[in-house]
Amino acid sequence: MDRFSEIRAFVTVAEQGSFAAAADRLDLSRAMVTKLVSALETRLGVRLMHRTTRRLSLTEAGETYLAQAGSLLAELEDLDALLSQGASKASGRLRVTAPVSFGMRFLGSAIAGFQRQHPQVEVELSLNDRKVDLVEEGFDLAIRVSNLADSSLIARPLARVRDRLCAAPDYLLRRGVPQHPDELAGHDCLLYTLTSQPTLWEYQAPDGSTGRVKVKGGLRANNGDILTNAAIQGMGIIRQPEFLLQQALADGRLQVILPDYQWVCLDVSAVYPVRRHVPGKVRVFVDHLVTFFAEQKNSPSGDGL
């Protein structure tokens, strides 16, 4: 048994959560997968997995080995694909992570279009609002909606989104419509917790000057859809990306506040780890996203970013 087969068996069992599922994935017998993992443990001289009749879990050594082995396996598979099929050939599994609300609105359509063109690519999408470590968690690509700091990742711009300030008409009727950002300090604001300073809202005035206002409110959440629904119910003022608010603005459930002021403007980017050979599946998917979001921006329906 070669080392590559042992590593692939171990990584697949860890990802699938059972020997039976890994055997199906690898098109091997369960006995062979068990034999491969046992051979790896024997060669390394450590136990990588705890096995019981009900569940399987990784040991501390197993967790450490998986983090490195998964990346190594991906590199080997990329190199095989590069040499045997050519750099532009797109095939295999593509693991993508993206923010929940953004992914739900856009990525289903984007992936459907992509797979019509590249049916040999199996896309695995994970929606999560936390910042995922791509290398450690074995992802090929992330969609990030943020102004990226310097990093070791390659970033490809896809779009720009801007925040809007909104509230429900009945809230504004009860509490009044703010005429200047400083007045927000006296209002109930709905706070998004995945920013570095949820209670500090920065803005640019019509004359180009900048400022910030400290806000407060009775609801904090790590998801923009939750805050949008709370705003629609009249709970307070929301500052969220325009794509989250479009429908509620269009049908009058929300109303824009301080429209002459500019709030946060964020980049939408596809980011992926630096590799000597960028896998064809990553490159063609990113190219597809660039085209997809350009079409969204120019859509006559007004459903773009």
Automatic annotation (TrEMBL):
Boundaries of every HTH lysR-type domain copy: 1-59
Keyword Lipid biosynthesis belongs to the record: no
Molecular function in Gene Ontology: DNA-binding transcription factor activity; sequence-specific DNA binding
Pfam families: HTH_1, LysR_substrate
TM segment ranges: none
Domain of life, source organism: Bacteria
Keywords assigned by UniProt, alphabetized: DNA-binding, Transcription, Transcription regulation
GO biological process, any: DNA-templated transcription
PANTHER family linked: HTH-TYPE TRANSCRIPTIONAL REGULATOR (PTHR30537), TRANSCRIPTIONAL REGULATORY PROTEIN (PTHR30537:SF35)
Family membership noted in the UniProt record: Belongs to the LysR transcriptional regulatory family.
Name of the featured protein: LysR family transcriptional regulator
